[in-house]
């Protein structure tokens, strides 16, 4: 079972610590203290209880500190602390990317003593399989600890967001939990090579976010306009099955992957990639039937690294494809599709769910975090109709929807009598106005019909309900008095 780094509990393997001029745990890392407060997606007007988180950040040039984005997700307060003298200063987030799981912190007060005597770390992207790396930690008393780990392999894997796949170092070694061990720097010969992401106590293996991804992240931040890592926007099937290769017309071709879906407004869609295409090569690299290419240093890697690691937003790459028996070359202008640009937001951090309460009817925009509120088995425990809609957004996108607005729950109030059991249904129209996002719903309900009765239509049972405007607004006033401080969040 894989657990986060902050709950390790194994025996530590010490290695000698060099106290020369070169970077070391005592003078190149700082403690990071954060207070996190996440949103409640089932009761969208509420937030969860504040929780503390402690980790270690790598000191970068310019009095900046590198941590994982997970270290300060939904943070209400972040603080930097000198590893030995105890000086502290509030910090601000100078840059963050949840998909790449990286963040840069800067002190709110540039005159603080937090960076006194500290030396910035240099990046080293030379790690290969078989290398020995050091995981740095700091004891509560300020003593430095370094643990040796062996690099087993370099491949691609998931970071923090479920669909975010990036380059990853797989390492093996024995680590011990400490109160500030949520995120830890990993070094080689005194240079930063990555940040520890996760640890399996049973197998004593860990995943390390590597220097090449960190370097690309920092380079993107340099001009003050962060664009993030591009995405291609396709889902694919391997072409190992001979029947599929025959069907795709590539029986006499080498390798290739079958495009199952192309995301709306994605880099691939804008370049003209279509469902049923077979991608044979990307940026001059042949793609095999499993979706891998030969990296000159790491060996076989997923083609995703050619896009998310080997290129930047605005770069152009060529795709050689096979379509209906004919070879084609398409030029893709790489872009990044942000989470908020998807019909169903794949993640939501540092911003609350959009919702509207009217007379006890609770409307929301559907997001993956809402579905994940049902726990690890959300795909079987969350409302089936919403899970299905999230898995099959294309019909709704073709209707021109920007978001999927649905009735999530109904509070028992005088204006909702008879509707208490209605929930998890997608709104299609209100008062004859198509609902493409939550702002459309607000505008429709803010316009009172001549008879004072709002007509709300759905794509499923009960198909339509009628809501009295005057009674609903009286209920809204009572809801505010009884603890729901904000009846709508539209942005």
Note down, in words, how this protein is organized.
By secondary structure, this protein is of the alpha+beta class. The protein folds into three domains: 3-221, Beta Barrel (Thrombin, subunit H), CATH 2.40.10; 234-333, Roll (Pdz3 Domain); 341-489, N-terminal domain of MutM-like DNA repair proteins, CATH 3.20.190. It has helices at residues 25-28, 211-221, 242-248, 267-271, 304-307, 368-372, 378-381, 384-391, 394-398, 438-446, 469-481; strands at residues 3-4, 29-36, 51-60, 64-67, 75-81, 88-97, 102-107, 132-138, 144-158, 165-172, 184-188, 191-200, 205-210, 234-237, 257-262, 278-282, 285-286, 292-295, 299-302, 316-323, 326-333, 355-358, 361-365, 405-410, 425-430, 433-434, 453-458, 464-468, 488-489. Strands 22, 23, 24, 25, 26, 27, 28 and 29 form an eight-stranded antiparallel beta sheet that branches. Strands 8-9-10-13-12-11 form a six-stranded antiparallel barrel. It has a six-stranded antiparallel β-barrel with strand order 2-3-4-7-6-5. The longest helix is centred in the C-terminal third of the chain and has 13 residues, at 469-481. It is flat. The two termini are 38 Å apart. Mean pLDDT is 92; it is low at 1-21.
Quick tags:
Pdz3 Domain; Thrombin, subunit H; disordered N terminus; 36% strand; 491 residues; alpha+beta; 11 helices; N-terminal domain of MutM-like DNA repair proteins; 6-stranded antiparallel barrel
């Amino acid at each position: 079972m894989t657990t986060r780094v902050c709950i390790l509990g194994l025996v530590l393997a010490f290695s000698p610590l060099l106290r020369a001029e070169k970077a070391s745990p005592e003078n190149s890392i700082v403690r990071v203290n954060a207070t996190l407060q996440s949103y409640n997606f089932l009761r969208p007007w509420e937030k969860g209880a504040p929780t503390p988180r402690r980790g270690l950040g790598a000191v970068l040039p310019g009095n900046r500190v590198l941590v994982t984005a997970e270290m300060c997700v939904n943070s209400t307060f972040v603080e930097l602390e000198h590893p030995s003298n105890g000086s502290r200063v509030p910090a601000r987030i100078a840059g963050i990317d949840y998909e790449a799981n990286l963040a840069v912190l800067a002190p709110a007060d540039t005159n603080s003593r937090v960076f006194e005597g500290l030396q910035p770390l240099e990046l080293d992207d030379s790690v290969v399989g078989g290398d020995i790396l050091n995981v740095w930690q700091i004891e509560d008393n300020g003593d430095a600890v370094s643990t040796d780990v062996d690099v087993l392999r370099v491949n691609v894997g998931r970071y923090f967001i479920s669909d975010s796949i990036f380059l990853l170092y797989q390492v093996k070694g024995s680590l011990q939990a400490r109160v500030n061990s949520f995120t830890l720097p990993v070094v080689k010969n005194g240079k930063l090579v990555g940040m520890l992401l996760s640890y399996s106590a049973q197998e004593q293996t860990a995943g390390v976010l590597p220097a090449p991804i960190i370097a690309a992240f920092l380079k993107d931040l340099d001009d003050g306009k962060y664009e993030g890592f591009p995405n291609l926007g396709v889902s694919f099937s391997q072409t190992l099955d001979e029947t599929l290769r025959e069907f795709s017309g590539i029986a006499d071709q080498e390798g290739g992957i079958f495009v199952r879906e192309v995301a709306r407004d994605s880099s691939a869609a804008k370049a003209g990639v279509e469902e049923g295409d077979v991608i044979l090569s990307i940026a001059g690299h042949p793609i095999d039937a499993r979706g891998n290419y030969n990296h000159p240093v790491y060996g076989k890697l997923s083609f995703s690294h050619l896009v998310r690691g080997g290129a930047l937003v605005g770069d152009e790459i060529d795709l050689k494809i096979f379509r209906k028996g004919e070879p084609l070359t398409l030029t893709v202008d790489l872009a990044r599709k942000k989470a908020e640009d998807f019909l169903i937001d794949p993640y939501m951090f540092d911003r609350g769910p959009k919702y509207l309460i009217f007379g006890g009817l609770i409307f929301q925009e559907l997001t993956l975090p809402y579905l994940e509120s049902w726990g690890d088995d959300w795909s079987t425990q969350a409302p089936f109709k919403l899970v299905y809609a999230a898995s099959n957004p294309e019909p709704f996108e073709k209707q021109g929807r920007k978001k999927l607005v649905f009735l999530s729950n109904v509070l028992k109030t005088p204006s909702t009598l008879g509707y208490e059991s209605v929930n998890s249904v997608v709104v299609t129209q209100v008062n004859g106005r198509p609902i493409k996002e939550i702002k459309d719903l607000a505008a429709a309900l803010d316009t009172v019909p001549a008879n004072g009765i709002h007509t709300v239509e759905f794509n499923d049972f009960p198909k339509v309900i009628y809501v009295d405007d005057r009674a609903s607004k009286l209920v809204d006033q009572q809801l505010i008095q009884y603890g729901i401080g904000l009846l709508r969040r539209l942005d």
